[in-house]
Specification:
Blueprint lengths: L10 H18 L1 H9 L16 E2 L2 H4 L11 E4 L10 E4 L2 H16 L6 E5 L1 H6 L3 H13 L5 E3 L3 H13 L4 E5 L1 H10 L7 E5 L12 H12 L5 E4 L8 E3 L11 E6 L14 E7 L8 E10 L5 E6 L14
Parallel strand pairs: 1-12, 4-5, 4-6, 6-7, 7-8
Antiparallel strand pairs: 2-3, 8-9, 10-11, 11-12, 12-13
Length: 324
């Protein structure tokens, strides 16, 4: 079952794996099973992933979501402002996460060995237990480029590193949290040609929230790049989606987005209609693969999805995107 999820080629195989994992999680995950039982849902009637109940994401703040008879090897925690309750993702098999993000990066960007990997992720580094930091560290290890590096507030060093890599015509990926990228490019104007900027969202309470379009406009103007890329991920997931040229995110084959009706969580919107985002992440085998988020969005005609904001009562969370 673990290896099968990375070989999904079509809708039928996705549905087969999703329903199989659902039954496994109902049997082995006490918190998820209790939630489903409280909904009075007959498990035997669930034949399609759209019939599967989605666990509200706040359960990751209040419960330990993990399969029984499994011990966690890692705990990822969401980032947030001071005093905020952080979500916890108990990860039983880190190698599944590593395979997920490595295959996804290969799918969207190619082998990490061709890149220098830079990270401007101060809030994640400072708070610890970050799934994003874990991913970027592993990508750096695969890259093996001597130019790799994490940067906190040492923007002079980042500026010098980028200049050097650009002079070498070295392909580079810069992962950055939104407020840190804005701070850096406000003070340093640097025309980039060989660098991909991947913003990971979030102001973390440091700056006024702005729409993604405005953020990207500012970053494109300062960097000279035609596009700013975005990563959509969160502590509660072991997979990511990427947007490379627009705000249209695409997922790997083992991850799927559904748009639920904001008034009725068990019905789904048609493509092009905005609603709450439900995520199926089949890499979450030993936690929960079916998550009801507090993000709002829509599915586009080409199968990609767009984020349009968050529900008003949700926290400003780690990897969530910008409010509009």
């Amino acid at each position: 079952m673990k290896s099968d999820i990375f070989n999904i080629k079509n809708e039928k195989k996705f549905n087969d794996r999703a329903t199989e994992i659902f039954r496994f999680q109902y049997k082995n995950n006490p918190v998820y099973a209790e939630y489903i039982n409280n909904l009075n849902i007959k498990i035997s009637k669930i034949k399609h992933y759209k019939q599967i109940p989605f666990l509200p994401i706040d359960f990751f703040k209040t419960h330990k979501i993990i399969s029984k008879n499994k011990q966690h090897k890692l705990i990822f925690k969401s980032s947030g402002t001071t005093g905020m309750q952080r979500s916890k993702h108990y990860v039983a098999e880190p190698e599944i996460y590593e395979k997920s993000f490595n295959e996804t990066f290969d799918m969207f960007y190619g082998n990490p060995e061709q890149y220098a990997v830079l990270a401007l992720l101060p809030s994640y580094s400072e708070q610890g237990n970050s799934s994003l930091i874990y991913m970027v560290e592993k990508l750096m290890q695969k890259s093996k480029n001597p130019g790799n590096g994490f940067f906190l507030y040492n923007h002079d060093e980042l500026f010098a590193r980028l200049k050097k890599l650009e002079a070498q015509k070295q392909k580079t990926v810069l992962f950055g949290v939104s407020y840190a990228l804005l701070d850096f490019f406000h003070n340093y104007k640097l025309k980039l040609e060989n660098t991909i900027i991947i913003e990971t969202g979030g102001m973390k309470g440091r700056k006024k929230e702005i729409i993604r379009e405005e953020l990207h406009k500012k970053l494109k103007k300062a960097s000279g790049l035609p596009h700013i890329h975005s990563e959509y991920g969160m502590t509660e997931l072991l997979s990511q989606a990427y947007a490379q040229t627009t705000d249209k995110y695409k997922t790997p084959p083992w991850m799927k987005i559904l748009i639920r009706d904001a008034e009725d969580p068990f019905s789904y919107k048609k493509n092009g209609k905005t609603g709450g985002i439900n995520i199926i992440d089949l890499a979450n085998i030993y936690s929960c693969s079916f998550i009801e988020t507090k993000d709002l969005g829509k599915i586009n005609p080409d199968g990609s999805f767009t984020i349009s904001g968050r529900f008003d009562d949700s926290d400003i969370r780690g990897c969530n995107l910008l409010i509009i």
